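Regression report. Comparing outputs from two consecutive submissions.

Submission 1:
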Amino acid sequence: MSLRLSGGRRLQSPPGDRARPTAARVRQAVLNMLAPRLAGSRWLDLCSGSGVMACEVLQRGAAQVVAVEQDRRIAQVARQNLSAVAAGLGCGPEQWQLHCQEALRWLQRPPQSESNGSAVFDLIYCDPPYRSDLYGDLADAVASGDWIAPDGLMLWECATAAMPPVPQGWELEDQRRYGTTTLMVLTRG
C-alpha cells in the first residue's frame, strides 16, 4: 500500500498487515476539524503506526510532535517518515520524537521527562488496534499522568461498529462517522 500525505509527499508503508494506517479521508477530516488548533500545538500520537498522522500535523505547524509505537519494525518506518518530513520542512530534532514502547507503559513514566521540560499536550491522538480494548486504559493513563492541557482534546479513532464507551472523567465533545471508522473527540470532564 502506498501512503501519501495530503500535500502529496510519499511515505513508507509499514510491513505486513499489523498496522492499519489512517485512511486519507479520515486524516483530511481530522486536519480540517483541528486546523485552527494545529499551529504551535503539542501533539501526542499514541499507537502511531506508520506515523502518518504525526507527519500530517508536523507539516501543518505543530510545535512538538511525539509519536509512540510499540512494534519495532513499524516504529522504524514511522521514524523514517517523520525524519523525512521534518527534514523537508527544516524542522530540528527538538520538534519531533518517536518512542518505541507500548503506549500504556510510556504513559506511566513521569511527564516532566520530556526533553523540553513540558509534558502537557494540546492534542492527543489514540489509534490502537480497534479490537484491543485499550481506549479506556489510555484515557485513564492520560488523565492520571496529567498529560493533557486543561483545554486539550483527545481524539479516538475507532471502529464504527464497536465504539468504546466514554470513560469516567471525560466528556464526548464531538463524534463523526466516516464509513467503518468513527472519530470521537473527548475533553476532560
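Submission 2:
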Amino acid sequence: MRLVRCIAIVVVALGAVVVAPDGAWARTNCVEFARQASTITLSGDAWTWWAKAAQSDHEAGSSPEARSVLVFKRTSRMRNGHVAVVRRIINSRTITIDHANWGSGRADKGKVTYNVLVEDASPNNDWSEVRVWHAPSQSYGSSYATYGFIYETMPAVRRLASR
C-alpha cells in the first residue's frame, strides 16, 4: 500500500489524470485521502482541520493554491465536514479538486473522484461558499460553506527567504 500511495502522490504532483487501480484508494474517506494526496498532516474530522491548522505549521487563507486543502464546514448533511485537495486553478472563481466520499448515494460512499470542478459562489469572491460540479446532472450542485484553504507547509528555508 505504501508504494501505491507514493506513486499516486507523485502522479498527482505532476498534474496527470489519475485513475486509481482497484483497491488503491478505491474506497476511503475524505480525510485519509487528503492526507495521502497532499503534505497536510492533520487528522480528525474534516471540519476540525481549520482550527488545527492555526495551531500547527500549516498556513491557511482564502485563496486557492494547487495542492492546498479546501475545508468545508459541517452541516446537517455533512456532519463531519469535508476536505478536498485542489488540483488546479482555472480562474479566480473556478478550480478543480480531487476528493473522496462525496455524495449521498450508496455507490458514492468512499469513492475517490478526480478533477472535479468547483466554483466560488461567495458574493465577495473569498471562497467562503462554493458549488461542486454534479456529473450526473451536468450542473453545479447546492452551495456549501467553507472555511478556506490550508496550504502545504512552507519549508523553513523558503520561509526565511520570503521575509
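Expected: both submissions complete independently.
Actual: both completed, but the second showed a warning that disappeared on reload.
Relevant detail on submission 2: The chain has one domain: 2-161.
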